[in-house]
Design goal:
The structure holds two protein chains of two kinds. Chain A has strands at 3-7, 10-14, 19-26, 33-38, 45-50, 56-59, 62-66, 70-75, 84-92, 95-98, 102-107. Chain A is mostly beta strands. Classes of the chains: A mainly beta, B mainly beta.
C-alpha cells in the first residue's frame, strides 16, 4: 500500500539554526514527490516537485532533495516567517497521497 | 484571478442534516479534488475530477457525493452529516497532474454536532 510518513512531527528551531525535515515513502513507480507549505488556517501552498533520485530544487532558504526512498527538505538559516507546517505528497495514479506533515516553529 | 474559492468558511450542522460545500476556480483547470484534513492524519482525498462530467472516488468517499457539470465548479455534498465528518475541507485544482502543482482553496471548517 502506498504510504507517506514524515518526521519529526514537530520541530522548534532558533532563528538561523539550520535543519532538515524528512519524508519517507513507499509507492510503486514514483511519478513525483511534492512539497507544500501550510500556514495556520490556510490551504497548502505548493513549493516543489521532484521526479527522480538525485534531483534537487531550491527556493530561498529551502532546498528539497530526493532519494529512492525518501526526500529531505533542508532549511538553511531559517527565519520566524518560515514557521509553518510542511507537507509532502506522492502521486498515485490520478491522485495524490499526503503525509501528516511536520510543524516547524522558528523562534526569534 | 480569484484562484480557488470555497464557501462557506465555517458551518455547524446537526447529525442527519445535509449540506453542500461550494468550490469554484477561475483558472480553467481540468483537475479538481476535495480533501479533508484531520489532526495527525494529514490530507485525505475524498473525490476528484479530471474534467467536466468525470468524477472518481478517493481514499475516503463514504458519505460524500460530487458532481462536475462545469470546468469551474466542483461542489461536495454531505448526504446525512455525522460527527465523524467534523473536519476541515479543502478544495484544490491542478493545471497539470504530472507536475502536482495543486492550488488549494482557503478551506471550510465543518462541525457536526
Amino acid at each position: 500500500e502506498d504510504q507517506v510518513t514524515q518526521s519529526p512531527e514537530a520541530l522548534r528551531l532558533q532563528e538561523g539554526e539550520s535543519s532538515s525535515l524528512n519524508c519517507s515513502y513507499t509507492v510503486s513507480g514514483l511519478r513525483g514527490l511534492f512539497w507544500y507549505r501550510q500556514d495556520p488556517g490556510k490551504g497548502p501552498e505548493f513549493l516543489f516537485t521532484l521526479y527522480s533520485a538525485g534531483e534537487e530544487k531550491e527556493k530561498e532558504r529551502l532546498k528539497a532533495t530526493l532519494t529512492k526512498k525518501e526526500s529531505f527538505l533542508h532549511i538553511t538559516a531559517p527565519k520566524p516567517e518560515d514557521s509553518a507546517t510542511y507537507l509532502c505528497a506522492v502521486r498515485r495514479g490520478q491522485n495524490f497521497v499526503f503525509g501528516p506533515g511536520t510543524r516547524l516553529s522558528v523562534l526569534p | 484571478n480569484a484562484g480557488v474559492t470555497q464557501t462557506p468558511k465555517f458551518q455547524v450542522l446537526k447529525t442527519g442534516q445535509s449540506m453542500t460545500l461550494q468550490c469554484a476556480q477561475d483558472m480553467n483547470h481540468e483537475y479538481m479534488s476535495w480533501y479533508r484534513q484531520d489532526p495527525g492524519m494529514g490530507l485525505r482525498l475524498i473525490h476528484y475530477s479530471v474534467g467536466a462530467g468525470i468524477t472518481d472516488q478517493g481514499e475516503v468517499p463514504n458519505g460524500y457525493n460530487v458532481s462536475r457539470s462545469t470546468t469551474e465548479d466542483f461542489p461536495l455534498r454531505l448526504l446525512s452529516a455525522a460527527p465523524s465528518q467534523t473536519s476541515v475541507y479543502f478544495c484544490a485544482s491542478n493545471p497539470d497532474i504530472e507536475r502536482g502543482t495543486q492550488y488549494f482553496g482557503p478551506g471550510t471548517r465543518l462541525l457536526v454536532l
